[in-house]
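ESCALATION

Customer reports they have been waiting on this structure for their group meeting. Please prioritize. Original submission:
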Amino acid sequence: MTRATTVLSAAALCAVAFVATPALAADGAAVYNANCAMCHVPGLANAPKMGDKAAWAPRVALGRDALLASAIKGKGAMPPKAGNPKLTDAELGAALDHMLAAVK
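Update from on-call: job pushed to the front of the queue and completed.
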């Protein structure tokens, strides 16, 4: 193998590793800030406020899967996918994880 081939091979491996890293996964805080905060910060329409352990307790008891299903399908005044049909389930899950981390 020549030096040029070795360098190119190493660069290709780095590119593959970069593309496959979880760092490229949805940023829960960014998704939350752009789509969820408008209701969850002030508690509009009974949305549990970010970080309010008492308000989140009965929801946490349902489990993450049930909460994510509610976020995807909508529940009460919360529209499906927080009103943003372009959000993926993974992005919603990341935003949910961000909110749940605040009430642990």
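Sent to customer with the following note: Residues 45 and 77 are 6 Å apart (CA to CA).
Escalation resolved.
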